[in-house]
Design brief:
Beta Polymerase, domain 2; 10 helices; seven-stranded mixed β-sheet; 364 residues; alpha+beta; 2 domains; Methane Monooxygenase Hydroxylase, Chain G, domain 1
């Protein structure tokens, strides 16, 4: 029955079989295959300290007008199509190597400064409540003179709604500063999302710990292994961000003003904290696995102890029955009228005495 149910679960959830490969197998030497969306979504925010406007464009050519404008521009493109990405990169002076990174799959988070354009590749993390998995969406952020271009894979979700609201407020910091502050704000929101995902994972870890203490089973071990894989996804996407932000602080970038660097220091502190938490969660998963094994072994020892006690209690009856079952002509009480009752009485009295002795010695 358990085997049938196991294979039925695999049929209903085939992604569980591929999860390990998705988490661990990354080969940058293999040409990536990305399915291009039928439509893309382009939204441009043009703002300064006095005004701000938001427009949705139909074609990528329409965003070319926002290059070299006196105000700041944020061009957000949802959906990656090779031809559209090439057009935007060629017009805004984004290097060929950065264009390849934008179109890549499974790329490690990184940052480059080529030809005066700062390029940053990060992953936005989401927690799938239904499958209890961590999902990562690649995002590329490009900082140029008075403009920021961001490329996202999924048009249905991101973490930038709070920033969009701030752009509508005239006195907000993002409106009072330049494109470099907008660049910082995007990275900061991505880093802040890390903590929300880790909080969700922390809740799963706590529930799993209670499950281990109450009723450990094979299903519990499967949950432990699944959470360990999600910790790998978390760690792999958080750890490189520390190098990225540290590179911004140590580097000399003409597009990032000195007054904005102090905000990146705050992001750096958050990244360190997130990295430490991911390390703690990984250690917790190792401890949970040890706790599961110890609990299962303790449960097995309890079962073996009960079986040993039962065996000991039945031993006197076995011996007495064996003695009176021997094929001798003369056996004491064999023909006595009360012989049977005396034998049965001894079979009950001896185990009771043994139970009292075991109890006094604290064996159970």
């Amino acid at each position: 029955m358990d085997t049938t149910r196991k294979y039925l679960d695999y049929i209903l959830n085939p992604l569980d079989l591929l999860r390990t490969k998705k988490v661990l197998q990354v080969n940058p030497t293999i040409a990536p295959l990305r399915e291009e969306p039928e439509e893309i979504k382009i939204i441009v925010y043009e703002f300064d300290s006095n005004s701000a406007k938001c427009v949705e464009l139909k074609t990528v050519e329409a965003c070319f007008a926002f290059l070299n404008t006196p105000s700041n521009s944020w061009i957000n493109i949802d959906g990656l199509r090779k031809d559209d990405v090439e057009k935007v990169c060629n017009h805004f002076g984004i290097h060929q190597l950065n264009m390849e990174d934008i179109l890549s799959i499974g790329q490690r988070p990184k940052m480059d400064d080529i030809n005066g354009i700062v390029y940053c590749l990060l992953y936005m993390l989401y927690f799938n409540e239904k499958q209890s998995t961590v999902e990562a969406e690649q995002i590329s952020i490009i900082l140029g003179k008075n403009f920021v271009v961001s490329f996202q894979e999924d048009a249905t979700r991101d973490v930038f709604d709070g920033l969009r609201d701030k752009l509508k407020i005239g006195g907000s910091k993002v409106r009072q500063n330049g494109a470099d502050f907008l660049f910082y704000s995007l990275i900061d929101l991505i880093v802040d999302k890390f903590f929300i995902v880790m909080e969700k994972l922390g809740e799963k870890v706590e529930l799993l710990e209670e499950d281990i203490m109450r009723n450990p089973s094979k299903k519990t071990l499967v949950k432990i292994n699944m959470l360990r894989k999600e910790m790998i996804v978390l760690k792999r996407n958080i750890a490189p961000v520390r190098e990225i932000v540290n590179g911004i602080l140590r580097g000399d970038y003409a597009l990032i003003e000195e007054k904005t660097e102090k905000y990146f220091k705050d992001v750096y502190d958050h990244v360190i904290q997130a990295n430490d938490l991911s390390e703690n969660y990984r250690d917790m998963m190792m401890n949970l696995q040890d706790l599961y094994l110890n609990t299962v072994n303790l449960k097995l020892n309890e079962v073996m102890k009960v079986m040993a006690i039962v065996t000991c209690l039945l031993a006197p009856a076995t011996v007495i029955g064996g003695v009176f079952g021997m094929n001798f002509d003369v056996i004491p009480f064999a023909h006595h009228g009360l012989g049977f009752y005396l034998a049965v009485a001894v079979m009950f009295i001896v185990p009771v005495v043994m139970l009292i002795i075991f109890r006094k010695r604290g064996w159970f």
